[in-house]
């Protein structure tokens, strides 16, 4: 081997980590240094400094080498011992609905809210409803996030209890799972729901067994349809403001790429309008609900490119594919299981195991359409019976359309069985799991939903790693706040509210948990070439944490703070001095929405009449210039 041949590998390595010996052609816009830099790049897992130009990383490696990129105008960012990581990539959430959460009364239980029983729920709603502007503008009182498993009564509220908030104005409270809602008597009247109303397909209008009258509780598709009819009317400017509020909450927790994981066509149009107006700062990727009409017409440039093309954002927004939902919520006991619930819900028999919401033939039809059109598909499947249906559907579809890889994603997979994992691997189904359930509902799963044995293996990340499989983790906001450190802590420690460890064998190490929130999540979205690790050529999407998650004690991961969120070299969020540790954000969007009320009256509003509010013709005309 010649001297030159021996030298080539060293030259290549130096170029890769930004350690060129010759001065760079031009200086960097910014350099970060003086703190641990966790690259999530296995070849070079840690670095001393990173340089950025035009929103991309131009050098990462040793301090001395990276400082070659320092010029007179280079901004120097002193980390002061804090840790720099790739920005978090949201594997599954609903950013638009997070904005809706922000304009609702906060009914979350501790530690994210203060509702512990029905009485405190009623008082919170009463206090919230005193905002006369909100009541006048929207004609409805909303609350989000109550959790029957955490209420003292361990049940849903009733219409009569919500009548104590208002007897003449509709009141709607939404369960933390976002799969249930309860309305008061005025709300039921506005919806036209009576004792004679039939259950919609895939949903239940719960009725009092003694009187036959609706209790106010609506499950699954019955709730989604009601939400569409009761969704507040806003003009386009207010709708965009709501989306921006969701974006702000995500970036507070270090996310630089956000997901809207079950978009109605209306939501897509609003996001497109926000993008065209330059109103977005973080990247948002949308997956419209394929069961809503008109979704196929959305899958066109500039916002959509199929999976055989490099993902392209248009002003920070793109459509990534489609979403299909096969069942409901395990904590709400509507997820579709193969074995009955440990304690069936009131009024259900001992053999009750939840239910599916889509017929087998329709599942195969959707997956076949996805393969034919090269659409990536997210599938909500919590129960193991729903996962069986998903596996069946992809087998049938791939037999019809062989040789197409759309990286189908299993969303949640709460009760994924060990014997199902080989089928996921064989079909190329990528699992995005929900370990945060171990904290929020782990005790409830053990004691009521699944029982001690099955509860140990919810979100079985350990089983996936045994087979060498990648996975992602998520928060499903607004089901939970998009709290990245809660996601990290739950994946590593799996500790319940009561302090128990749920599933010791399903724990993973901190680096694996970080990959699931960064590089593997970027891969899930077909964006691994530009995001997920700190490497030369990738986007300068960073998060600064108060300490190094690789060196702190695992049980203290939840105490880490997001100090700053950086998107393509620009700061999106910076923690203010004195902010309370892990304090829940102040929810409530009334001022942001009301600001546009009088200035834009008469400009058209949107509402809706279907799952997550598909919307009215006027909004399509407003946002698309008359074309839809």
UniProtKB/TrEMBL annotation:
PROSITE patterns: PROKAR_LIPOPROTEIN (PS51257)
Listed Pfam families: Amidohydro_3 (PF07969)
CDD domains assigned: YtcJ_like
SUPFAM superfamilies the record matches: Composite domain of metallo-dependent hydrolases, Metallo-dependent hydrolases
MF (Gene Ontology): hydrolase activity, acting on carbon-nitrogen (but not peptide) bonds
Family matches, as PANTHER family: IMIDAZOLONEPROPIONASE, PROTEIN LONG AFTER FAR-RED 3
Record-given protein name: Amidohydrolase
UniProt organism field: Alloalcanivorax marinus
Taxonomic lineage from the root: Bacteria, Pseudomonadati, Pseudomonadota, Gammaproteobacteria, Oceanospirillales
């Amino acid at each position: 081997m010649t001297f030159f041949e021996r030298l080539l590998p060293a030259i290549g390595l130096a170029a890769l980590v930004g350690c060129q010996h010759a001065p760079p052609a031009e200086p960097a816009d910014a350099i970060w240094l003086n703190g641990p830099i966790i690259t999530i790049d296995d070849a070079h897992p840690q670095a001393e400094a990173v340089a950025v130009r035009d929103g991309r990383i131009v050098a990462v490696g040793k301090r001395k080498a990276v400082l070659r990129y320092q010029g007179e105008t280079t901004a120097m960012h002193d980390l002061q011992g804090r840790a720099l990581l790739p920005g978090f990539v949201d594997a599954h959430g609903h950013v638009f609905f997070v904005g809706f959460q922000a304009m609702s009364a906060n009914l979350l239980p501790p530690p994210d809210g203060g509702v512990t029983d029905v009485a405190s729920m009623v008082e919170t709603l009463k206090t919230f409803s005193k905002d006369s502007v909100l009541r006048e503008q929207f004609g409805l009182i909303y609350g989000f996030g109550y959790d029957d498993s955490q209420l003292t009564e361990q049940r849903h509220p009733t219409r009569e209890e919500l009548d104590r908030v208002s007897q003449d104005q509709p009141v709607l409270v939404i369960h933390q799972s976002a799969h249930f809602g309860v309305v008061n008597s005025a709300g039921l009247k506005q919806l036209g729901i009576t004792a004679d109303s039939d259950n919609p397909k895939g949903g239940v209008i719960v009725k009092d067994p003694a009187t036959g009258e609706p209790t106010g509780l609506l499950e699954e598709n019955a709730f989604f349809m009601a939400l569409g009819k009761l969704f507040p009317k806003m003009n386009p400017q207010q709708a965009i403001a709501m989306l921006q509020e969701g974006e702000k909450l995500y970036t507070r927790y270090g996310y630089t790429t956000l997901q809207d994981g079950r978009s109605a066509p209306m939501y897509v149009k609003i996001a497109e309008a926000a993008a065209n107006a330059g109103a977005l700062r973080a990247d948002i990727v949308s997956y419209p609900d394929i069961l809503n009409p008109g979704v196929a017409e959305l899958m066109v440039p500039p916002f959509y490119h199929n999976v055989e093309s490099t993902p392209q954002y248009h002003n920070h927004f793109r459509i990534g594919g489609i979403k299909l939902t096969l069942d409901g919520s395990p904590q709400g006991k509507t997820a579709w299981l193969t074995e009955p619930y440990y304690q069936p819900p009131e009024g259900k028999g001992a053999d009750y195991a939840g239910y599916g919401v889509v017929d087998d033939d329709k599942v195969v039809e959707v997956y076949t359409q996805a393969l034919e059109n090269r659409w990536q598909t997210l599938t909500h499947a919590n129960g193991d019976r729903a996962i069986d249906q998903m596996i069946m559907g992809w087998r049938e579809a791939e037999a019809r359309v062989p040789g197409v890889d759309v990286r189908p994603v299993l969303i949640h997979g709460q009760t994924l069985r060990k014997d199902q994992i080989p089928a996921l691997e064989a079909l190329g189904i990528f699992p995005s799991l929900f370990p945060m359930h171990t904290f929020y509902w782990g005790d409830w799963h053990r004691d009521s939903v699944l029982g001690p044995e099955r509860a140990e293996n919810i979100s079985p990340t350990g089983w996936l790693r045994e087979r060498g499989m990648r996975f992602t983790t998520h928060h499903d906001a607004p089901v939970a706040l998009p709290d990245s450190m809660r996601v990290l802590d739950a994946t590593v420690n799996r500790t319940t509210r009561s302090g128990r460890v749920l599933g010791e064998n399903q724990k993973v190490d901190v680096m694996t948990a970080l990959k699931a929130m960064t590089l593997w999540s970027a891969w899930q979205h077909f964006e691994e070439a530009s995001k997920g690790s700190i490497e030369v050529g990738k986007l300068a999407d960073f998060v600064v944490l108060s300490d190094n998650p690789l060196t702190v004690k695992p049980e203290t991961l939840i105490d880490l703070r997001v100090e700053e969120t950086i998107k393509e070299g620009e700061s999106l969020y910076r923690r203010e001095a004195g902010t309370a540790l892990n304090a829940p954000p102040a929810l409530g969007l009334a001022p942001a929405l009301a600001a546009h009320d009088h200035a834009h009256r008469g400009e058209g509003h949107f509402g809706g009449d279907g799952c997550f509010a598909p919307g009215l013709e006027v909004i399509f005309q407003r946002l698309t210039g008359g074309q839809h």
